[in-house]
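Colleagues,

For the teaching module next term, I've prepared a clean inverse folding example: a structure given as tokens, and then the sequence designed for it. I'd like students to try predicting residues themselves before seeing the answer, so please don't circulate the second half yet.
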């Protein structure tokens, strides 16, 4: 069992498998404007916030808000494609029964989508502190999201552990000085192995810990 005062979780790919819903929502919102947006493109940009993703796709900055609104409207119609990570949620439920542990979310997703999914799966009470793309000027891989989450939790970097599943997320957490673990439930094996080698991060086995 990890010994720490605070635990910070990425949202997409760690707490919930939102990949298909996000991909379809982005694709439908970009149809007619970005011709070659496919699953490989989405995987390459996964973990970036909407501003960084649109910039990478060469969308003019003055259109960011319009495309984001389209994407969010499409996303809300795709909630049936989203599934939780049961071992992680179970681990957090057990953790919150122990006094003194703080839990937060640090995500590139929008606050509206995070709140909607947590409410839908009846686990919003587990995450009193949430940092979304709405809260920061510089998204992951910048350290700003994790630094803000630490501030809201009232913790220093050495008092927390971060759980991530993307390169941008790992970079952000490490840049904030936080011990970082990989959650590989929804990751490709080769991607997980690559991140472990390049960033010297290890995989945390929630299923094993829940069974102890």
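(Answer key — instructors only)
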């Amino acid at each position: 069992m990890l010994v720490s005062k605070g635990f910070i979780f990425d949202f997409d790919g760690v707490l919930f498998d939102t990949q298909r819903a996000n991909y379809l929502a982005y694709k439908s919102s970009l149809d007619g404007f970005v011709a070659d947006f496919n699953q490989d493109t989405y995987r390459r940009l996964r973990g970036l916030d909407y501003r960084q993703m649109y910039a990478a796709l060469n969308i003019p900055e003055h259109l960011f808000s319009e495309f984001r609104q389209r994407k969010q409207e499409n996303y809300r119609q795709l909630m049936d494609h989203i599934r939780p990570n049961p071992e992680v949620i179970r681990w957090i439920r057990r953790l919150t029964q122990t006094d003194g542990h703080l839990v937060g979310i640090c995500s590139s997703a929008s606050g509206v989508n995070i709140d909607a999914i947590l409410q839908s799966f009846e686990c919003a009470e587990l995450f009193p502190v949430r940092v979304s793309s709405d809260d920061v000027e510089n998204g992951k891989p910048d350290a700003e999201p994790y630094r803000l989450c630490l501030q809201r939790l009232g913790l220093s970097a050495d008092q927390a552990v971060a759980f991530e599943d993307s390169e941008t997320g790992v970079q952000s957490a490490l840049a904030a000085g936080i011990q970082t673990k990989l959650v590989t439930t929804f990751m490709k094996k080769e991607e997980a192995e690559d991140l472990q080698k390049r960033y010297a991060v290890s995989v945390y086995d929630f299923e094993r810990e829940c069974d102890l």
